[in-house]
Amino acid sequence: MTVTPVTFVERARQAVGSDVARSNRVGAERLAGLREAARQAYPAFDEMRDAARQIRLHTLAHLDDHLQRFADQVERNGGHVFFAADGTEAIGYIQRVIQDRRVRRVVKSKSMVTEEIALNHALEASGVEVVETDLGEFIIQLAGEHPSHIIAPAIHKTAADVGRLFADKLGVPYTDDADELNRIARAHLRRIFLEADLGISGVNFGVAETGSICVVTNEGNGRLVTTAPPIHVAVMGMERVVPTAGDLAQMLEVLARSGTGQGLSVYSNIVTGPRRVGDPDGPDELHVVILDNGRSRALAAETAEILACIRCGACLNVCPVYRAVGGHAYGSVYTGPIGAVVTPALMGLDPWADLPFASTLCGACRDVCPVGIDIPRMLLHLRRRAADERHHPFRWVAPGLRAYRIAATGPWRWRAFLGLGALAARLFGRSGRIERLPFHASGWTRFRSLRAPAKKPFRRRWGERHGT
Amino acid sequence: MERDAFIARVKAAARAARLPDADPPGLVVPDLPEVDLTEAFVAALGRVGGVAHRDDPVEVVLALADRLGTSEYLGWDDEWLPPGVGAGLRHGGLSALAGDVPADAEGRRRHQSGYFDVVLGVTGAEAGFAETGTVVIRSGPGRPRMASLIPEVHVVILAEEAICRSLAHWAETNAGAIVDAANVVFVTGPSRTGDIEMRLNVGVHGPREVHVVLV
Ligand code: SF4
Predict the structure, then answer these.
(1) What is the best residue among A307, A309, A316 to mutate for testing ligand 1's pocket, by most ligand atoms within 8 Å of CB?
(2) Which domain holds residue A409?
(3) Domain ranges, residue B62
(4) ipTM score of complex
(5) Using an 8 Å Cβ cutoff, are A345 and A294 in contact?
(6) How many angstroms away from the CA of A92 is the closest CA of chain B?
(7) Can you give the pTM of this predicted structure?
(8) Contacts of B140 in chain A (CB under 8 A)
(9) Rounded-to-integer distance, Cα A56 and Cα A65, Å
(10) Which atom in ligand 1 lies closest to the alpha carbon of residue A375?
(11) Residue A67 falls inside a structural domain
(12) Tally of domains in chain B
């Protein structure tokens, strides 16, 4: 994970109003609309959501048991399991597999968790070629950028941008025709798939009862990555298990409807072990890397519920802050409301203390979440922690509130405090509006003016009328 | 990290977690409006960009091969397709490509390079979901995964009586069957992406066209 050396506010300021943020918003609004249409078209949606939530919470409460069972089953099916405490361990294991098998070329399908541990970067540094195959990720990789949306990583790029990029990097004639661009990508990536030495995928769900892993894609690259190369390495966040195959079905029922408004994604690909005796194709070797990387820390804290997330992206699409600033402002691979919780929950508040403040707490994210995660509650919790622990840049919150408490807990202190306010109003709000406040308060009036407080305070008027 | 240490850490965290510990409800099979399963399947398939056929599968495949200008297909072995389909295709001039990939890395690469130009795939399916237009495809001996994945055009032969109401309805009785193969895939329409300006585009990696022949 790259830590960008600026705060959320600074990144957001750069992003607001930019073309990138605009295309981002259009995309997010479209996805939100599709989700709403899917919800209305499927009468059982709310019922399915409740069940999905129960399954996820139950799994987390007994995560150790389900993980044990899952690992046993993967091994029984002939796969290898590696438990990685953090990104370094996960990368180390994958590098060992790569060296042992003399792997030169790796194909990958979209996976947040490998982004989280910056796997590509590490593998490339050790001299292996890593090709992202999800069209959006492929575009992002060619451009040397970071994804801005967890479902649609290149949501901020126009067809013309992509055309220029392809012309530049793939040596094809420029076109901004989306069909043609798709064809170029298909032909280019096809050869790479069929000849790759190793495929790396994420895991949407692991099934404890059967040791199966499910990889969901619309493009089909998730299937190619798990079918064509002789070795398949699946990297799974440890929270991704569900107890049974029936539970998997339940999760699939809500995942695509929430994310993109589809009834099901185009491919829900379920892999149970490497290729079996007599199977004509598929990988001969399967490795499942189960990753903690801060998850047990998040699980033990008030943020436990965030691990129920199935990364559908619905909360991003409805979030007014995400819509305005886009994904890059979050500075982390996890963006939007889910990112504002998950990033500090996994990686600590330092340097992510400002992310929980990147929200209006309107609650839209909680309303659309297919597993009913109360994101606003967790944002508030993280805000309190950020203030308690005096994380920059919110050091002033705790002393500020303490000063307020002192002022508000004694009648004469309160009167004096209000008197100060009235004085300030007279100083700054002569025309009935406060146009500009000085120093730290200037942020309140940068983009708007405020109505000045009444000349005669309400308390005085009340007193005059009722004679107290 | 050692497995035991890892699990111990997770266990401590899970015990510390303040989570409502509800019992798992099991699969909820929703009460969906009654529909004619075949009609609903055909409509749903159309919505996701697939095409349904009611004609003889051999004729459908031969017509597609003709349009694509190909004389070969990658598909399931004869015994896994409805009786007579494999023979019919050969009789119509189509030859089946070998789907068995060698186990050594070099052999695999050589064999799979031959898939680069494959445009036509023919498979069966063991179930369909009326709600979403999905087909369930299970791999195994004589049933290569590549047949439904690599070609530009994928023809699926599906028995009408195998159509269920939805994924949940199917899973209620068949969920355990998922483990019976190294690969089971639910396919819902042609491969698609919205990654360039959110505009729908088909066939970026998987098949550009999905034809379901109901028998
Ligand atoms: S928090 Fe909920 S809505 Fe947001 S990505 Fe996760 S599952 Fe989807």
Answers:
(1) A309
(2) 397-466
(3) 34-214
(4) 0.95
(5) yes
(6) 11
(7) 0.88
(8) 276, 278-279
(9) 14
(10) 1
(11) no
(12) 1
